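Database export, one record per block. Field names are fixed; values are copied verbatim from the stored entry.
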Amino acid sequence: MLVAIAENGTLMAAADALNVSQPAVTKSIKELEARLGVQLLERSGAGVRLTRYGETLLRRARAVIAEIASAERELKEMKSGVERTLSLGVSLLASSIAMPDALRAFRKRLPDVRLNVYECLPTQIIDGLRDGSFDLCVAFVADSDVTAEYRVVPISESAQVLAVPRDDPLTGETQLANLTGARWLYNHTRDSLPTFWRELCGNRALALPSHVNVCTSQRLYVQLAQERGTISVWPEFLLEEQIRLGHMHRLETDACTSRLTLGLMYRRDLVLSTSLEYFIDCIQRKPAGDL
């Protein structure tokens, strides 16, 4: 009922959607608030909105609904004799690094399982896990990311390092404090930028660079990073390839180290199916040294 109210905006609309009377909806919510001892809704002439307690309960309720729907699909597929479908979300970076070998191994072990694999931006991965669109996601997670809702199983780690184009005038600069006025290129979400910057600064209080561009497309990132006067952030293993190609130069500064974790992400309340356990086993068999 709480989900219906959140999706429809008013008690009347929620009642219509549930095919019950508005007094019935009101009574159910009041009984739930009394049982929990908290206020779930704030009422106004424009409708209702959820309190912070209501938002917390709504998130759990949606997870339960998604899990019930997933269980119903799995039971239906079991009854029909068809293996279930496994839906995976993959970050743009992890899709080329971690997935090919794992998918080949999985197809060899369970060839009849249907796979849906979607390449996504970080925000799409979180949304897909939250609403049940993805059973599991494979992504690089920064220390600055908020992952309290999800279980993250680490596979490997990589340092994030700074780089400039080869023969760039900034090559000789070693003090992070002298680089805040430069143009920066960042490879993760803008929301995580302040925390990433604090990690680089360590115990120093340096102002966040005023000109920071964000790009999550790996192909475009390589091109933008080669513009002179640009300081770019790289997973160390990717930068090594660009250095070998003669495109980039690693910037050795007094910045502290920030790390990325390649991990498997899934909801903490998720009950792992047999096919999902097999996939996790396949991707965990990938040697960490490959990254």
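Remark 1: The chain has three domains: 2-77, 83-156+261-290, 157-256.
Remark 2: The chain is about 40% helix and 25% strand.
End of record.
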